[in-house]
Amino acid sequence: MTALDPGVLVAAAAIDIPLDPLPADEVLEGTPSAGSVVLDDSGDLELGVWEMTPGTATDTETEEVFVVLSGSATVRIEGMPDLELAPGAVVRLRDGMRSTWIVRETLRKVYWA
Asked: Which segments in the chain show pLDDT lower than 70?
């Protein structure tokens, strides 16, 4: 279990995130890699920083709220308008949503899931 200590400053934009290639069955275009660092999972929610390099991939979402720190992407969710992501965007995802992430510039976000 990871717990963020009270009063600790975390520079989420500068955290070193280990990246791994996405599974081939999720990749639609390019060779995207992704990874995350969990900052706190001591309660009912997990707080972390996630990053994905350019490319297009599919995903099945979990219940999550995130804030984009850097990069740009389009997220397509079945039955909804496209979401254009840029720094400062705040998005809520629902468990089970099917999505396609089209990342143009390495995307980094802080998430609560």
From this structure: 1
